[in-house]
Design goal:
single chain, alpha/beta, Rossmann fold, 7-stranded mixed β-sheet, globular, binds S-adenosylmethionine
Length: 217
């Protein structure tokens, strides 16, 4: 990756240079529930797919054989870990070291789907408009997206637990429970949110939508 990185992305890349060594071990208690959700999230995803923030590749096994996945990540260490899962995937996977906020090597309207799980809760609010504008640009007219992120709960007990975890989660993953992803999506002219739902409690939010201009795929 030769593009100039925003200082907040440089910090994230450095964080994942370290976290990448033990990410799968550290994330295991959460991954035990995420792995039950991933097949349902991805079973209908077909054609050319951009997965942003592919990480260590936990989604890759869940794509159907006729998907062609380009997985991008800011962290070379995370991508190195994803290689093994890419080889075992039923579909074709290409892993690329790239920043989701600037994707100059990916042409306009190339993808049928854009997938990002636990990327936008990691991505600073200031960078989200650029990443979402890139999502809108690289999607085909009618192309669809699914984003999963974590949010603060309205339930006091859950929220207190999240507040106790917040400093750790931010230090290790760069993730926060108070990102404004929905508002950032609504501000992008060509993006339409078609559905929001929770995968668990009111904390794991699935955002589904599409690029509005043109024909629906
Ligand atoms: C919490 S991990 C989630 C990994 C994976 N999506 C999953 O569901 O297990 C977040 C990933 O997003 C990547 N990331 C953060 N900012 C990024 C950016 N601007 N462009 C590409 N990847 C980014 C990090 O390097 C990390 O691998």
């Amino acid at each position: 990756m030769t593009t100039h990185l925003h200082p907040e992305n440089l910090a994230l890349r450095d964080k994942y240079r370290l976290t990448g060594w033990f990410y799968d071990m550290l994330d295991y208690p959460w991954e035990r529930q995420y792995r039950k959700w991933r097949p349902g999230l991805l079973e209908a995803v077909r054609g050319d797919v951009l997965e942003a923030g592919v990480g260590t590749g936990h989604n890759l096994a869940a794509y159907p054989p006729d998907a062609r996945v380009t997985g991008i990540d800011l962290s070379e260490r995370m991508l190195a870990r994803a290689q093994r899962r890419a080889k075992r995937a039923a579909c074709r996977v290409e892993l690329v070291h790239a920043d989701a906020t600037q994707l100059p090597t990916l042409s306009d309207g190339r993808f049928d789907w854009y997938i990002a799980t636990f990327l936008y809760c990691v991505m600073p609010d200031a960078l989200q408009p650029a990443a979402l504008a890139e999502m809108a640009r690289v999607l085909k007219p009618g192309g669809r997206f699914k984003l999963v992120e974590i949010l603060y709960s309205k339930d006091e007990t859950i929220r207190r637990r999240q507040e106790r975890m917040a400093a750790f989660v931010q230090r290790v993953y760069g993730a926060r429970f108070d990102r404004n992803t929905l508002a950032h999506i609504r501000a992008i002219p060509n993006l339409e949110i078609t559905q929001t739902s929770f995968l668990k409690d009111d904390t794991y939010l699935l955002i589904e939508g599409r690029k509005t201009a043109g024909t629906v795929v």
